[in-house]
């Protein structure tokens, strides 16, 4: 008798844990991550712990995902919502500014929160490009191209690795 009661008591938290795990895998999380209050500084080992290998390669090693990849296919299907840094949660872009540039990477014509998006010169491929990084954690996001003639309000293309972003769908009213 005592033994079976003990079993129930033990099994209940396990069952709750299993349900919780299933719950967290739902894609429709409408709560944006907390905006970092101060610059986010972590060691390489801490970032490796926090990020997937692909996120780490993009954000911390200035990697580029392959064009028309899985992250881009997902990006094309996403509706209204906001795009946050996969490293630190800072708000970066909004679906309101996304457009189809045909380049194979997520494209935005404006940041959602300009102070979270940092621009700097990148000489890594011989010429000069404008690198786009997260201003809060320094994570590499992609590059900015200008004057390409797209029919957008800014004529700018923030060419961003989808793998460095986390999408939060807007709440359906
Ligand atoms: Zn960040």
Question: Can you walk through the features of this model?
Answer:
This protein has helices at residues 2-24, 44-50, 53-59, 70-77, and strands at residues 81-85, 91-94, 107-108, 117-122, 129-134, 140-146, 156-160, 165-169. It is α+β, with helices and mostly antiparallel strands and 173 residues long. It has a single domain, classed as Metal Binding Protein, Guanine Nucleotide Exchange Factor, Chain A (Beta Complex). A 5-stranded antiparallel β-sheet has the order 3-7-6-5-4, with no helix packed on it. A 3-stranded antiparallel β-sheet has the order 2-1-8, with no helix packed on it. A hairpin with a 5-residue loop joins strand 5 (129-134) and strand 6. The termini are far apart. Mean pLDDT is 87; it is low at 6-27. The protein binds zinc ion. Residues 85, 87-88, 90, 134, 136-137, 139 line the site of zinc ion.
